[in-house]
Design a protein that fits this description.
alpha+beta; 7-stranded mixed beta sheet; 26% strand
């Protein structure tokens, strides 16, 4: 991605009281939610419930320290979003509470494979570093996610999320200071 394109990007926390922003987010959230849940064999939910999930995540990010729900704007259009924060750990698989976790990550299809996802991840990692996080984990989508996350340095930990058995991928984003 060239510097001119990067200058036209904004990575901004979602404001649940900003109606225009929330309406634009809903347009991305619906296809994201349907894409990720129906691929896993789940039945599609009603729109109202899907939109409620979005609102709950945005409100959670707003009130929870070291948690974010951010949108990526390109030329004043929302083209992606991510929900991330301190994980709190997963005892069952020895993930410490000071690891960061990317819970939701989406780039609209017309903007994929153009460097936008990598740039959004770079901005998430900057925020994590500013919060003192050294390691980040996620459970990537097996079809679209794994190749991307591996290409930017995430590695299969050979551990699985105890809730859904999806593999946990981890990336060291800065060396720990001992």
């Amino acid at each position: 991605m060239d510097n001119n394109t990067k200058r036209n990007l904004d990575f901004i926390a979602v404001n649940p009281n900003h109606n225009r922003q929330m309406r634009a987010m809903r347009k991305l959230w619906l296809p994201y939610w349907i894409e990720t849940t129906t691929r896993n064999g789940e039945k599609a939910e009603r729109r109202r419930k899907i939109y409620r999930r979005l609102k709950n995540r945005v409100l959670h990010a707003e009130k929870t320290p070291k948690t974010g729900f951010y949108v990526l704007y390109f030329e004043r259009q929302i083209i992606g979003f991510s929900f991330f924060g301190l994980s709190g750990g997963i005892k069952a698989v020895d993930i410490p509470p000071d690891y960061g976790m990317i819970m939701e990550f989406y780039i609209a299809p017309p903007f994929r494979r153009k460097g936008f996802a990598t740039e959004m991840n770079n901005r998430i990692e900057e925020l994590f570093r500013s919060w003192g996080v050294s390691n980040v984990f996620l459970t990537p989508d097996p079809v679209t996610g794994r190749p991307f996350w591996q290409s930017i340095g995430y590695e299969d930990s050979l551990k699985a999320d105890p809730d859904d058995q999806r593999p946990i991928y981890i990336k060291v984003i800065r060396e720990s200071v001992v």
